[in-house]
Amino acid sequence: MPAFSATHRKRKRSAILRNERETTGIGGIGGAMDLAAGRARVLVVMFHLTRDGRPKLVERCTFPLTAAGCVSTVVTDLAVLDIDDRGFLLRELAPGVRADEVQQVTGAAVRLAPDLREMSFEGTTATNHQP
Asked: Are strands 71-75 and 79-84 parallel, antiparallel or unpaired?
């Protein structure tokens, strides 16, 4: 794999933005706004905790948001949770994970779905690793 200097990367990024401006008249914003504005079902796949063990799923976001309230489902290495106007709803658990463990490591209240079940990976080649 070739190594690129920071200067090379800046030039390449600048060229991409310049080409978008020439085509559309404005810089590109990516696809996140299109998804949020188009009312698409937004599914987030992520690790449940930060590298130092803090919850990523929290009561209130602290970073600027592209669109508030557009995520409908979160799939983590521990669980599948739906998000509605009442907060997080725990739908599925990873094998060997208990509901109380998910509630403990989530930075917001978690309700249990009446049909809560274990995730099924039949027919998949999923691997479990964290970079």
From this structure: antiparallel
